[in-house]
Each structure stands twice: as structure tokens, then as C-alpha cells.
């Protein structure tokens, strides 16, 4: 029998195994483990001894301490996995109910603000990466995970592998965005920063991809440099695609 690391209890290891069996994303696994750890700290004893009333008190504790609706629902989801799957005690969750999340309209930039934002990005790589997020409606994690081979200039698509929900899909590629990608490809190749079949947006080491943290820092710095007085994030650019469609702007990015 394989011994467990000294800092991992059998119960924690069982939960880890349950999450791995269901192929939950590593980030989701970390979040769920953190949620159970916080509940254990509140409880003051092993979580497998919790009662329905303990869980009810914990939800009230979170509410009283100003936990947002989104974070509260995340906590409930993580605890539900632990008690329903790992402990096989779904009845313990009967008093913990998800709460309604207020609908908040996303920040929307004008075409001019988008143009200023991208032009203010520190270098061509960041400008092109932000253009992809804007033009194709991609998440930061999807942008940095792109490889050169994911660009299909004949079908005018970008292949998104293992996006949210671990699903592959295709994003539309406009002629303007394709030309921007070609310019970036030529420059990066000339500088020896883009190996064959490598990352479309490599990090400092061409063998590594640009990180989501670097991309988020780039957009925040660009927003400040462009004097855009709005809460700008990668989600801001991504949400702009459906806004353009609803507003009649079409799919082609307003970047010339």
C-alpha cells in the first residue's frame, strides 16, 4: 500500500482522488480544497463530523462576513462536492441553498476606446494578443494557449482547444485580425521568438507561453496609459463581441 505524504490526510487524499477521477480542472480542484479547508477552520474539527446545522451556521457566517453572492455559491458548490461525492452524505447539504447573483452589466468600451487601449499596449505581442481577445472574443487563458497551428487562414477560424468546460471550439477570424497575426508572426519569426508549431504568444522563453498574469498586467497598464477611466479587464474585451453583434457593428474588429 502506498503511503500518503505526511501533510495530506486520508480524507483529503480521497477528495483529491474523487476530483481526479472526474477530471476536474486543476484550478477547480485547488478551489474546492481551499473551500473545505476554510470550512474545517470554521468548524474546529474534522469536516466529516459536520452536521446539517453546522453547514447552515457556516452559510450564515459567510453572509454575516460580507461574502459576495458569487463567492458564496462557489463555497456551496465545493462543499456539495465534498459531502455528496467524497462522503456520500448528500442529505447534509439540504439546508445550504445557492443564492441569486445580481446581474451586473459588463463594462463596454467604445470603438475609439478599444483602439486607444490596444495602441497603448507596451509591445507588438501584447497589442496582437489583446486584438485577438477583442476580435475573436477569447478568454485570457484561451489567448495564451493558442499555437501557430491553431490559425486557419483558409477557413478564417481560430481553433480553441480545451476552453472553458474542456470543450474544443472554433472562433471566427476577421481579415483585419488575420493580417495583424501575420504581422506579428513575421516579426516574431525574424527575432527567433516563435519556433515552428510553437506558442502564438510565447513568453520570455520561446518554449513557454505568455502567462495570463502577464496579459492581465498588460491590459491594465494599457488602460492607464490610454487614460481610459473604466474598469478594464480581459473580460471587457471578450464581452465586446456580443455587444457589437447586438449593436449592429458586425464581427470585424474596429481596429484599422
UniProtKB/TrEMBL annotation:
Sequence similarity: Belongs to the 'phage' integrase family.
Name the record gives this protein: Integrase
BP GO terms, sorted: DNA integration; DNA recombination
Tyr recombinase domain location: 104-256
Alphabetic keyword roster: DNA integration, DNA recombination, DNA-binding
Sequence ranges assigned to domain Core-binding (CB) in this UniProt record: 6-87
GO MF terms, alphabetically ordered: DNA binding
InterPro entries named among the record's database cross-references: CB, DNA_brk_join_enz, Integrase-like_cat_sf, Integrase_catalytic, Integrase_recombinase_N, Integrase_SAM-like_N, Tyrosine_recombinase_XerCD
